[in-house]
Amino acid sequence: MEGERQRDFRVPLISALFCLFVIAGGVFLIIYVYVPDQSKSWYPVVALLLIGSPWIFWLLAYTYAFMKACIRARQDNHAVSSNQPRNIGDDQNAGQNDQTREEGSVASKESEEPLKFTA
Fold first, then answer.
1. Using one digit for the tens of pLDDT, what is the confidence trace for 17-26?
2. Where do the domains of the chain lie?
């Protein structure tokens, strides 16, 4: 089964790209520190952005995955709640007060004797 599965080219491509970013950021940082007369003022900013690019990528990827899961869960909950059948009896009893409900239960012909426990 492992032989049938083709390798995904995106993983090595992204890894190589991040490796190049980190190396380029290191070069900018080394030039800024060890050759200050030839460096520009924006070298440390670009160096830190390039070195931090993998962290930024993963932070954005995790944020995207989290937001996607939250949105999907909210849509699933909304779909479930909108598809549930409504209990018509609840709407009819919604206007009644507690006294009317109590009178209905007192007028019931059901036995109020507690159930017996058998072990």
1. 999 999 999 9
2. 10-79
